[in-house]
Amino acid sequence: GGRLESVTMDTPHLVPAIANVRAVGAGEFQFGAIDGAGALFTWGLNDDGALGRATDELNAPPARVPGLPAARALAVGRGFMLALTQDRELFAWGGNTAGQLCQGHLRAVPAPARIAVAQRVEAIAAGASHALAVTATGDVLAWGSNHRGQLGHARPAYAATPVRVPVPERVQSVAAGMYFSIALGTSGQV
After folding, report:
1. What pTM was computed for the model?
2. What integer is the mean pLDDT of 156-169?
């Protein structure tokens, strides 16, 4: 029996096997990086397929997510990920207990699954179990858990398909925390 070594590091270190990184994302136990060619690499805990790739390792090292078109952005929630491709298509995978993968059901999805959104997506964000997207027209779409009102509506308790968030102006970017959402309007208001 080998000795279990600490996975905690108190000084910065280079993440191996990924070069020319242009975007990163981090959650509680999952991490991702997009390289200059748009390849998405993930690492960490692979519960419910949260890394978007097959691995038997408990704490998986970085490896490319197969079958995903070239990505431009990623968002990491609690046990799930979203990727926005260079063609502005949206994909999600991992845990789905509140519909945060926007697939119309509540089952985990271990590999990238396309999210059907009628409008072109420009920006994304992920909270603990909800997700946000900004469309080319400045609308905000939300899905997943709404138990704390993070989807911008009083009901439903969760949404497995996108709901439009009633914001008073066009939005340019979004951010999400555990149980809340933030939108930056084009006027500079939050």
Report:
1. 0.92
2. 93
